[in-house]
DNA sequence: GAGTGGTCTAGACCACTTA
DNA sequence: AAGTGGTCTAGACCACTCA
């Protein structure tokens, strides 16, 4: 019956919106996102039921549902009929589908092993500074590793992270295969989205040696910029991939 | 009040569903899709209002909305508040965003020109037969063209179409830049989705000559299989692209 | 059987567009 | 002012899960 909650609560953050109209469910989503970002809701956790959230937030169950559905569409939540709503975990099965688009030409997709070649910190290059939004004084961590599918090396990748968001990174004894799970568990950083740019390049002598391919062989270069839940850039990754028996898959809908 | 429409109408097509439960809005979507597929609703056309459709189909307005929203999410419809719901058109602006993922490294995306090098019909290769689901007696049309961005040739592509779905193709005097619009207007075939596979390859002598690049230069190979609204494969396309100043963009959410 | 998400309805009001 | 899609609510029932 009472329905004037849109404008009154719209000014909760003093941001410079051009024209103020934010639907209630969008406001609800923002309040729920805050719980995720602040770590009040951790990966794998069971959320309160729709009815309970509706009571807490003083809106109808349908409005809560719209907010939850939109977060589910962004792979942030997982809903299961009869069970409840859970915070999504950066598991292999999910990561594979969402962030790993390489499949063998024949046969079913598989997650590659990885072997770290080197780690260390350094000053960022101009490209890294721009992509990660760093200042002159900031440092970065660089990881280089080689990834194999059923024994065959298929790609070599360089991961760049801003040091200030990953304190004590050098204390790590091992770097696991699934680094997004590591970011989440160790530093509470959840990767929510990423942009990738693909090019074809010729293998450098260095990469060719590590990958065991011809010098100058065509490689697929994948540059990824991954962002956290607040859309801040977190990770820059350059993968150079042998695509003789493998391809990068994209669905256009 | 009355709400038992799910099971009764579920058996409208005698397909072999494992367990019969299809929500009402999914049934509504199927009925609306039929109008699109059969050409009762043509690109650009204004649909009846939600209320009118609800009356026609004897369901509530909210259920019609769910079906329309899902079709809008698939880029089949376009909804504008205050105006109405329209059938989506294969316009450059939409196509560009949905089906053309190549952007210059610097500057804003632009749609390339194209110049046809050759057309003709032939017997399909094994790959073409498998991808397009063709039999031994079927023929295909092949188009080869070169595409340029601001004067610079950037890719050469081979398009393969099943002859039986594109009758009198050889009567065409010109082949326009936007072929999906042509498919729609001339043969009533709407491209609804596509899958792409990307690899890095070395330029063949033939491609290098046409593109004006080095022999063996790394090219991005994009193999696309495009499907119509009923998910039948319609077009197979092999693009070989120079990615010196251009990249293929993907968003992972 | 109790609790959860999923569907469906009915009705009200809001924001936007066009006449 | 009238018509459209967009939001919000309230309440009912259905399908699924688990103790």
Automatic annotation (TrEMBL), chains A, B:
Top-level taxon in the UniProt lineage: Bacteria
Keywords annotated in UniProt: DNA-binding, Transcription, Transcription regulation
PROSITE patterns: HTH_GNTR
Protein transport found in the keyword field: no
Composition-biased stretches (Polar residues): 116-125
Region (Disordered): 106-129
Domain HTH gntR-type: residue ranges: 22-90
InterPro entries in the record: Bact_HTH_transcr_reg, Chorismate_lyase_/UTRA_dom_sf, Tscrpt_reg_HTH_GntR, UTRA, WH-like_DNA-bd_sf, WH_DNA-bd_sf
Pfam families per record: GntR (PF00392), UTRA (PF07702)
PANTHER family given in the database record: MANNOSYL-D-GLYCERATE TRANSPORT/METABOLISM SYSTEM REPRESSOR MNGR-RELATED (PTHR44846), MANNOSYL-D-GLYCERATE TRANSPORT_METABOLISM SYSTEM REPRESSOR MNGR-RELATED (PTHR44846:SF1)
Protein name, as recorded: UTRA domain-containing protein
């Amino acid at each position: 019956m009472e329905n004037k909650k849109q404008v009154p609560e719209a000014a909760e953050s003093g941001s410079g919106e051009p024209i103020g109209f934010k639907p209630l469910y969008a406001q609800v989503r923002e309040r729920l996102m805050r719980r995720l970002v602040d770590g009040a809701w951790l990966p794998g956790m069971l959320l309160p039921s729709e009815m309970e959230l509706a009571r807490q937030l003083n809106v109808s169950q349908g409005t809560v549902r719209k907010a939850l559905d939109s977060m589910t569409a962004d792979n942030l939540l997982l809903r299961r009929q009869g069970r409840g709503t859970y915070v999504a975990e950066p598991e292999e099965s999910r990561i594979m589908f969402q962030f790993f688009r390489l499949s063998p030409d024949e046969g079913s997709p598989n997650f590659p092993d990885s072997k770290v070649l080197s780690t260390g910190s350094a000053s960022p290059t101009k490209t890294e500074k721009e992509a990660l939004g760093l200042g002159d004084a900031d440092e970065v961590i660089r990881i280089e590793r080689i990834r194999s599918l059923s024994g065959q090396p298929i790609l070599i990748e360089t991961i760049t992270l801003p040091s200030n968001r990953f304190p004590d990174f050098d204390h790590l004894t091992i770097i696991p295969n699934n680094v997004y799970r590591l970011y989440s568990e160790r530093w509470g950083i959840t990767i929510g989205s990423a942009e990738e740019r693909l090019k074809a390049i010729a293998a450098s002598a260095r990469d060719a040696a590590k990958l065991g391919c011809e010098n100058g062989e065509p490689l697929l270069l994948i540059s990824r910029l991954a962002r956290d839940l607040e859309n801040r850039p977190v990770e820059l990754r350059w993968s150079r991939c042998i695509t003789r028996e493998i391809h990068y898959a994209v669905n256009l809908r």
